[in-house]
Amino acid sequence: MTPPLLELDLAIQGVTALTVDSNRPVIEEAVIGIQGDRIALISSTADAPAWTAKRILDLPGHVATPGFVNVHTHAILSMVRGVAEDLGFAPAYTPGIPQGSDVTPAEAYALSRLGALEAMLFGSTLINDTYVHADVTLGPMAEVGLRVYSCGRIHDVDFTQVSRGELTYDPAIGDRTLNAALDLAQQWHGAANGRIGVQLAAHAPDTCTASLLRRVAEASQAHNLRVNTHLAQSRLEVERVQARDGMTPAELLAETGLLNERLTAAHCLFLNNADIQRVGRARMAVAHIPKGNATGGTMAPTPKLRAAGARLALGTDNMHADMVEVMRWAIAIARLQEGKVSDDWQPHHVLAMATRQGAQAMGLADSIGSLEPGKKADLAIFDFQRPHLTPCINPIGNLVHTAQGRDVQWVIVNGEIVVESGQATQVNEAEIRAEAAQAAQQLWQRCSK
């Protein structure tokens, strides 16, 4: 008896699939079948069952990957693109450039949509974004087409003074920012068929007092929300926390109940050996920002962190959103520290960091992060017919070492095509670029007076 045809909404055939599934990491001449928002079929063409589809994309010479999961970004900070990279410090701590407290809701709206658009065009299907005016930006970012987790930064420091080197704390600020985050989660977490979510964004150990960090930990448990933060991102942070609390930033997170596997902490540059072991035992996720850190002359001890048990994922942080470039920097930074090319740091490791391990950090490993039947249909498809990707002897090697985010031609989120032939399908790109450029110009003009 002939089995019934598998009826698909969308079929992609002729691609090389980099699945990030250890059972079958590479499938040449693949067919990927999508029903609704899920992957229903992934197989070589020769082994696939009989199928029919409402739409077929025939894409020989292309490479499909899981959509990238960018676990740490600040979309609005495109406003300091090309400037903050050369100032030597994180924008919030840097005088002479626009600060979050300077950004109006309208400017946040325009700039955040630009950041979301850029990330999606480069193959990210999820961004975990934090900054200001999240109540204004979260919905509009998701309307661009990708998955968006967001939260306003939680802190009790007066951020209007931080860039001047002054840290003063006000419990009322902590109340306001934490309550705003919880209100955001109540309104948005799980919305848009699961494309929108909230993590509690405790800004950093030096901008949050111990009492506020404890409240964030309690709120995380009470509301079943994950937490993200910055950790040991500067020597100054370490010095300030040591002086204020008599412990390292990692010890402070442990003391306040935040250092656990539900935490994602960005940077982790200035951890001592005891702290590396501490975060490793906690199975904390590290949001590794290799390019951004290297631009500032620093690098996270990722080989030691992974050996200690920490889970590594990738983020772009500020000023750009190309996760392919971040993968390339991640493998280079690790090899520089090891002083060699080893089996421990190969292209498939950093591809997993950009996809499956990012999904694990977000608590979404059951639904995204690899190309497997039953998972959400989140894909990025690269055109490998370009000179810098020819010849293609090892597609994972080509992807990590020579590809670029701008090689992405198709992006699919929840089974919907949101980038087609390199162009966004849900929004007007020119309008978003123009509005963001105008917002940044107004912001810089106002802040320079």
UniProtKB/TrEMBL annotation:
Protein name: Amidohydrolase family protein
Pfam family, one: Amidohydro_1
Originating species: Vasconcelosia minhoensis LEGE 07310
Entry annotated with the keyword Signal: no
Cited InterPro entries: Amidohydro-rel, Metal-dep_hydrolase_composite, Metal_Hydrolase, MTA/SAH_deaminase
UniProt GO MF annotations: hydrolase activity, acting on carbon-nitrogen (but not peptide) bonds
Keywords for the protein's UniProt record, in alphabetical order: Hydrolase
Annotated ranges, domain Amidohydrolase-related: 64-418
